[in-house]
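Please complete every field before forwarding. Incomplete forms are returned to the sender.

SECTION A: IDENTIFIERS
Entry label: holo-57
Bound molecule: zinc ion
Molecule representation: SMILES string

SECTION B: INPUTS
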Amino acid sequence: MTDHDNAGKINGKHYLEGTITPRRCDCCGHHEIGMTTPDGEYIALKPGMRIMLELPV
Ligand SMILES: [Zn+2]
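SECTION C: PREDICTED COMPLEX
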């Protein structure tokens, strides 16, 4: 995983905070789900990633 300015570390693992964002793939047009960091960087969610969600109120 690359280093991100806003990445945090908990128990030796890297965490990244962001907002879940759907988008359409540039190459093939398929829909994918990812997250946008406070920097505006989009990170696609991949199988095997572990995430922690803040539930909407
Ligand atoms: Zn695609």
